[in-house]
Give the backbone structure.
Amino acid sequence: MLILGKLINLLLCLAGAPLLGGIINRTKAFFAGRKGPSVLQPYYDLFKLFRKGVVYSQTTTGIFRAGPVVGLAAAAAAALLMPLGGLPAALSFEGDLIVFVYLFALLRFFLVVSALDTGSSFEGMGAAREVTFSALAEPAFLIGLAAVAKYTGYTSLSQIFSSLDFTDWPAAGPTLVLVGISTGIVFLSENCRIPVDDPNTHLELTMIHEVMVLDHSGPDFGMILYTAALKLWLLGAVLAGILVPVHTGNLWLDTTAALLFLGLLAVLVGVIESSMARLRLLHVPSLLIGAAALSIVALMLVCGGLL
């Protein structure tokens, strides 16, 4: 049963990740008064891209070709470490939360160097912005996870999320709320969502992530879109583990609660993107520094025994 649970968890992540993007787009269409695309549209897009050929510029090297492959491999490896609801992670070991964070750093590194490999100043601009904002988002995420790890006494994501329960909220509520808000901001930033980035924009002055992938085509671009979907699912699963720690002992009930949270999270992202504008680039660092400050306060509450 344990092996079956691990396999179902991995399959849910790999197969269900693009659905979150479809829910977000459908929610945005609803608020805009449009019928909008099907929630399955991301699957259709991926299927179309993987059937196309690839075009490579003569100025690019093997780094450009390796970027999407390494990024997808890093996201898939991170999926092995993430439990969901009552379903265990495929892999679990002490300190895997640090590996989880830096697999995303590896993903970003290859995306940035593949953008720089094109020799385009336009893509270089996006890469510079990506690196700048990630340098602020990573500490906020890592410190937030460290606060939860310190509270639970574990450094493995599986042990951390399995030990958290709603009975912890009366004692550790302030810490979990602070980490939840901080991780929520990082979730929006790392997934290139409003108010940090707009995945639908093509304006030079506002593009961050999208500008780095303009030269990718066909299956390479499909891998980048699928990697982004996996990242959205995995960071959403982190939020689910912190904010909705349902552990009734019923595997299917616990997993259903986590899946419902992911669906509601996608709807919330759609509502946010429909109701507010993107922040000016100069204000994004302030938002991420604020997220880091919330994580630091949460860690101080745990370390200081002020729970």
Remarks:
- The chain has a mean pLDDT of 91.
- The CA atoms of residues 7 and 90 lie 7 Å apart.
- The longest helix spans residues 121-152.
- The chain is about 70% helix and 0% strand.
